[in-house]
From TrEMBL:
Keywords: Aminotransferase, Pyridoxal phosphate, Transferase. GO terms for molecular function: transaminase activity. Transmembrane segments: none annotated. Pfam families: DegT_DnrJ_EryC1. This is DegT/DnrJ/EryC1/StrS family aminotransferase. Gene3D superfamilies: Aspartate Aminotransferase, domain 1, Type I PLP-dependent aspartate aminotransferase-like (Major domain). Signal peptide: none annotated. Its cofactor is pyridoxal 5'-phosphate. It comes from the Bacteria. Belongs to the DegT/DnrJ/EryC1 family. L-glutamine:2-deoxy-scyllo-inosose/scyllo-inosose aminotransferase subfamily.
């Protein structure tokens, strides 16, 4: 974490410990380094998170989304409804597949797609819905599934921030025609880089396996046009170590969030909302700062000065980024969310002292800036 003060509490802290290093070295000294036994084992083991659905490992979360769209037959002429309040990869994957994103509003409390707004956005070219389980909170899959069924749309879950999230006891990744996870270093578990596509059956699974590897099952007998989006066995071996620890880390994130919820309750900062039946895994612990971007940025500066690393996900909603601005989407709820959010450290490596420091700093920052609900 270059540039951070030594006593700074980092906003995120990816784990690369002795076990990860040992796993990587084992693979490097072994022989099979790409899409070998470690990848197969990682796919098998990841199935435990998604009720045994078929899992196909790829080289990033973006690749996972891209290939899921291709495997479901989405492309030129198709529109895919996505939230603008997400990481750009959500819309980029749609464009890369040759389809066009259509941005719909989010719920101001959960920051996930609002089914009513999605219903309004459905048009003659709509072919798919791509909700994002943002910050580790599940999107409202009941309403979105109904809409998808009513209009005959594919449903793809962007679960890149939501490993082990669930809704009414059902894990995310099991609602859609496909679901995509990321293993980028700052996610709740990582594989240096990597992604996983999760699908209900091996028919679609086989298509995805072809797409990630030049369209080949048997070497040089290419059946379709595919890319090279293979995962390395180094990544898979690290992913397996992390997967084994995910449950413990998730409980720690949730426990940290409870401490922050209690500590911040009277500061004027709006603590994360949890919808009925949602199991939030706090990929981010994101508060809202009333008063707009100026107040939010002022709180952020105060926290920074107090040694608490925080971040804004995402300062510019996708519909205002250069590749998408010409679409002219009008999304006031999304704009307000982008102006108000601030993510505080919640990662599992925080100590009790760190949590206390975060609460004290946030309380003092809110006072200094004059935040009131
Ligand atoms: C991280 C992320 C992605 C992309 O994953 P990469 O592994 O970085 O390619 C896609 N969507 C969301 C919501 C993400 O947070």
């Amino acid at each position: 974490m270059q540039g951070l003060r030594k006593d700074m509490i980092p906003a995120a802290k990816p784990v690369i410990g002795d076990e990860e290093v040992a796993a990587a070295v084992r693979v490097l000294r072994g022989g099979r380094v790409v899409q070998g036994p470690e990848v197969a084992a990682f796919e098998e083991e990841f199935g435990a998170l998604v009720e045994g659905r078929a899992c196909i490992a790829v080289n990033s979360g973006t690749s996972a989304l891209h290939l899921a769209l291709l495997a479901l037959g989405l492309g030129p002429g198709d529109e895919v409804i996505v939230p603008s309040f997400s990481f750009a990869a959500s819309a980029n994957a749609v464009r890369l597949a040759g389809a066009e994103p259509v941005f719909a509003e989010v719920d101001p409390d959960t920051f996930c797609l609002d089914p009513d707004a999605v219903a309004d956005a459905v048009g003659p070219r709509t072919a798919a819905l791509m909700p994002v389980h943002l910050y580790g909170h599940p999107a409202p899959m009941g309403g979105l599934t109904q809409l998808a069924q009513r209009h005959g749309l594919a449903l793809i879950e962007d679960a890149c921030q939501a490993h082990a999230t669930s809704l009414h006891g059902r894990p995310v990744g099991t609602f859609g025609d496909a679901a995509c996870f990321s293993f980028y270093p700052t996610k709740n578990m990582h594989a240096l880089e990597g992604g996983m596509v999760v699908v209900p059956d091996e028919t679609l699974g086989r298509t995805l396996r072809l797409l990630r590897n030049q369209g080949m099952e048997q070497r040089y007998e290419n059946e379709i046009v595919g890319a090279n989006m293979r995962m390395t066995d180094v990544s898979a071996a690290i992913g397996r170590v992390q997967l084994a620890r995910l449950a413990g880390w998730t409980e720690q994130r949730r426990a940290n969030a409870r401490v922050l919820d209690e500590g911040l309750g009277s500061t004027g900062l709006v603590t994360p909302f949890v919808a009925d039946g949602a199991r939030h895994v706090y990929h981010q612990y994101t508060v809202r700062v009333p008063g707009g971007a100026e107040a939010r940025d002022a709180v952020r500066r105060e926290l920074d000065a107090a040694g608490v690393g925080c971040a804004v996900y995402y300062p510019t909603p996708i519909h205002r980024l250069k590749p998408y601005a010409h679409l002219g989407a009008d999304l006031p709820v999304t704009d307000a969310a982008a102006a108000g959010v601030l993510s505080l450290p919640v990662h599992p490596q925080l100590t009790a002292d760190d949590l206390e420091q975060i609460v004290e700093a946030a309380d003092s920052a809110a006072r200094t800036v004059g935040v009131t609900r």
